[in-house]
Amino acid sequence: MSFDLQDIPLDSAASAAIAAQGLEYRLLDPGNRAALAAWIQADVRGFHRARPRKSDATHQLQVLTDRRVLGVYDPKAADRETPVATVSGWPAGLTVPGGRSVDAWAVSSVTVSPTHRRRGIARALMAGSVADARAAGAALAMLTATEATIYGRFGYAPAAQAATITIDRPRVRWIGPAAPGRLELVEPAELRNDAAALVRRAVARTPGEIDRWPGLLDRVLGLIDLERDFARATRVVRYDDEDGQPQGFVTYRITRELDEPGILDFDFLVAATDDAERALWRFLVEQDFVTAVRGRLRSIDEPVAWLLEDPRAITVSDVVDHLWVRVLDPVAALSARVYGATGTLTLEIADPDGPADGTFELEVAGNGRGELRRVDDTPSAPMATPTRAAPSTRRSRPSQGIRLGVQELGAIYLGGVRPSVLARAGRLAEVAPGSIALADRMFASERTPHLSIWF
Ligand SMILES: CC(=O)SCCNC(=O)CCNC(=O)[C@H](O)C(C)(C)COP(=O)(O)OP(=O)(O)OC[C@H]1O[C@@H](n2cnc3c(N)ncnc32)[C@H](O)[C@@H]1OP(=O)(O)O
Asked: Domain 328-443, what fold?
């Protein structure tokens, strides 16, 4: 997707819904630093965060220049320059099973001031962001959520989970193979050039990972403000293969009291190969003078349990819905991924008044590539406010097929949830015996989907 994000017209339905409240929906000009700075203040306030340091605000201003930034303004407010609601969006690739990247629209910074909540502003912003995503040609919209109760009503579903993994360091005995390369402790700034390429390769290996935006690595590596405690504590180790080529890195910090062993926290383990992944895990879990090793936003399917003699040394906690997906264009979304089994499956998708509504046929050939085509003659419906999926009343087709809502489609899309689980929950039905079992096999992903960042 390459176009000027400013060229997308402001969604008229969202504008009208906001105007009906006596408020104004505005697209911010990336050159207007004062307006963006006020928007940032509203954004952090909306998330109950402290006012940003100057270095963070400057960094955020830079990040926002590549995004579509929208605000809602109250002409009656004492401070009319600070928005009462915020949202931002930008095009980003999402890795799907098989390693391709699908054009997606990332939605972030959805906040409504505590003084203006529960009068439909977020609903209008969500409809506006879907309109933006469709105008940008995105196959789906995606987000990470503060609360799991908000986005289902807008057609989003959790598609990739994440968890905190804590390892009891004294119980660690490594039984995995030794990696053939070597580890190198490097200063964060030294890694800046290699990091972006390594991250791109790591993202392409895992369904659920999204393209990183310019600036994210600077934040992760602590390069925004070198004097900050976070930056001073951040250490980086890189894994190079036998030929001396960098294949991964991990950033970590050890927190400890005087004379006490510490806790190692890592939040960015990037591995472009399995050797790199194992070597970096080994480095982390074999640290001396450390009682625990803790990684947040890790996969729920980490191989580390099979690399330690005592799998009970590992505690998996805080398993959360992490990546939420809202399918907008089923043909583009489902034709991008690779499937676990061949077959032909009809999908009757209920997306009342939404763009994904209709009947489609998914055909998967021997190479796992899938092709989806619409088999009804429903014109692409204009986006209205989506609601929870309702059971379809369409006549069932004789072939193998399933009936599901757009939320359920989002849930199974990356292979993180089996259709049969949704069927047991009464949220998905088969049109002929055996269809759910076929859907389970077809939607399976070789690798469990996982997203390792917030956005
Ligand atoms: C992708 C992201 O950015 S995630 C970040 C989300 N933002 C935050 O958590 C910041 C703090 N919270 C907020 O700023 C606001 O409360 C928001 C953005 C979550 C909601 O804004 P509002 O303008 O109050 O929401 P709005 O009035 O449009 O409500 C729309 C619907 O969502 C529901 N809803 C809104 N907030 C919540 C919530 N926190 N939990 C459950 N339901 C909610 C409303 O009840 C309403 O339901 P219904 O119309 O289907 O009956």
From this structure: Nonspecific Lipid-transfer Protein; Chain A (3.30.1050)
150 lines ligand 1 (CB under 6 A): yes
Domain edges within the chain: 5-138, 163-321, 328-443
Summarised one tens digit per residue, pLDDT across range 342-370 is 999 999 999 998 999 999 999 999 999 99
CATH of the domain spanning 5-138, picked from 3.40.50.2000, 3.60.150.10, 3.40.50.1110, 3.40.630.30: 3.40.630.30
Q: In this structure, which residue's CA is closest to atom 12 in ligand 1?
A: 111
CB of 166 closer than 6 angstroms to any ligand 1 atom:
no
**Ligand 1: centre distance to CA 86 (Å):** 12
**Is the dihedral angle over the CA atoms 106, 30, 63, 191 positive or is it negative?**
positive
Residue carrying the six token digits 């193979």: 177
List, for residues 152-172, the tens digit of each pLDDT value: 999 999 999 999 999 999 999
Dihedral of alpha carbons 205, 206, 207, 208, sign: negative
The CB of 47 under 6 Å from ligand 1? The reply is yes
Reported ipTM: the value is: 0.98
Q: In terms of Cα–Cα distance, which of 26, 161, 173 is closest to 86? A: 26
What's the order of all strands across the beta sheet hosting 68-73? 24-27, 68-73, 85-95, 101-112, 140-144, 314-327, 157-168, 290-298, 262-271, 246-255, 235-240, 182-186
* Domain 163-321 of CATH type 3.40.630.30: yes
Q: What is the Cα–Cα distance from 39 to 45, expressed in whole angstroms?
A: 10
What is the distance between the alpha carbons of residues 169 and 247, in angstroms, rounded to a whole number?
Answer: 25
CA of 78 to the centre of ligand 1 (A): 24
Is the fold of 5-138 the same as that of 163-321?
Answer: yes
Pocket test for ligand 1, best of 111, 115, 143, 210 (most atoms within 8 A of CB): 111
Beta carbon of 49 within 6 Å of any ligand 1 atom: no
